[in-house]
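Feature request, filed as a ticket because there's no other form

It would be nice if the structure record came with a short human-readable summary line next to the C-alpha cells. Right now we just get the raw output. Example of a typical job, pasted below so the devs can see what we mean:
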Amino acid sequence: MVELHPVRVHRSEENLPREGQLAWKIAQVAADPVEVTDEVTDMVINRIIDNASVAIASLNRAPVVAARAQATSHPVSAHGAGAAVFGIDERVSAEWAAWANGVAVRELDYHDTFLAAEYSHPGDNIPPILAAAQHTGASGADLLRAIATGYEIQVDLVKAISLHKHKIDHVAHLGPSAAAGIGTLLGLAPEVIFHAVGQALHTTTATRQSRKGEISTWKAHAPAFAGKMAVEAVDRTMRGQTSPTPIYEGEDGVIAWLLDGPDAAYEVPLPAPGEAKRAILDTYTKEHSAEYQAQAWIDLARRLNEAHPEVTDPDNVASIVIHTSHHTHVVIGSGANDPQKYDPSASRETLDHSIPYIFTVALQDGRWHHEESYAPDRAARPDTVALWHKVTTVEDPEWTRRYHSLDIAEKAFGGRVEITLTDGSVITDEIAVADAHPLGARPFARADYIAKLRLLAAGVVDDAELERFLAAVQDLPGLPAGSLDQLNVVAGPGVIDAAAAPQGLL
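Raw output as currently delivered:
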C-alpha cells in the first residue's frame, strides 16, 4: 500500500512539526525494517550487473580516469575497511570510492532510468551505498535492503516533484535517496537519517546547465558528487550534526525558492509502514548508450532501416519530422534550440542528447554502438550530416500526455515519425516504448544483463574475473558480512595505466 503525503511550503511561524516534514517521512521509510521481495532481489542483482557493465566500458574515458586518480589520492579513513574502485584492486576512503564509481557508472549514460514528473537514473544510488557497505563490512542482505530503499525514495520523489521545470538538475533527488539508502544499510535511527536527507538535499541542488548547450564532462560527475555528498552527510549526522529544517517546506527552503514557490503543493507517494519497497520494479534499463528518450527511436530507426533502406540516402529524403513528447522535443530535440545538436564536431556528451543525430545514425546503420556510433569520423560523414540536418522534432500533445501518464500500461517515451521522400511519398511509423522496456518487444531479463556485461567487458576484463563477479553478485543475499569487495571488477593486465592519470592539486 502506498500513502500520499501532502507537501507544501510553511511560514516559519507555522512551526511545522518534524513529523509533518517530508525528510522525516523519508527517514521513517528508510528505517522501516521490511523484508525485500524475491522479485526486487532479482532486479537489484540485475542493476548491480548493469552498473558494472557500463562502468567497465568507461574505465579509460577521461572523466573516469580523472575521478579514479582523485579517489586513489585519498586512502582508507580511520573507522572502516575502505571501499573498492572499479577496475583496480585498491581500497580508498568510502566517499571517494562513491565519487570514482559514480562517474564510471554515469559516463556512458547507459544504465537504468525512471521518468515521471522528473528524470532520474536510479542506478546512481548504487555506488555510494555499495561504498558505504564495503567500508562498514556489511553483508549482501544489508546491501540489498539499502539499495531497495535508495530506489524507492528516488522513484517516489521523481513521481511527485519536478525539478527540471525550474532548471534544477535531477540529482537533487539523488542526494536524499542515497542518504536514505545508507541509513537503511547502517540501521540508523530516523533522527540521524532525517538530518542526512536534509544535508544531502541542501548540498546537491544545482542548475541544469550541465545538460544544456555544449554538454561538458561534468554531466558524469554530477550524480557522483551527489552520492559523495550523501556519504559525507551520513558521516556528519552520525556525529550529531543537524541539517537545515524544514529543508523542503521552509519559507526559505528548496520548494519555496528553487521549485514551485510559496504556493506549491505536492503529493509524494511513499510505502506505508511495513510495506515492501518495490519501486525498482518501475524502472527500466538501456539497451543502447544514449539518453533514455532516444532508446525507442533507435529501435524504430533500426526497423525502418530494414523495411525502407531508401530512407538512409539523403538524396531520397526531403524531410524527417519526429512527433514526440514535450520533453524529448525540448531537451534532446530541435526544440532545445541548441545548434550543437546539429554540429558534427560536438562532444559525445552533446551528441547523446541529440535525437536528430541519434535517429540519423541508427537509421543509416541499422544499429547503435556505444563507441562507434559517436566516433568523430562517423559524426562527420557527409551523407550523415546531410540527412541529419533534415531531421526536426515537434511536440505532439498526445505523446506528451502519455509521457506523463501514471498508468504504466500507457506511459510512453516514443512517438511518430513522418519521412517525406523527394518523390512526394510519405513513410510513417511509430513506437511507444523501447524494445528493452518491460512492455517492449524484447523486455530485458537476466540473460540480457549478462550479455550486456560480456559485450562491454570484452577485451577489458579477463573471463575468469568476469565469471567470479557474476557468481558473487547472483548470490547477493547469501554474501556474508565483510565480503562485498567481491562486487568489484578488476580490469585485465595493462588495461589501466595508472601512471598516465592526470595530475591535480591533491
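Something like this underneath would help us a lot:
The domain at 292-431 is CATH 3.30.1330.120 (60s Ribosomal Protein L30; Chain: A;).
The radius of gyration is 22 Å.
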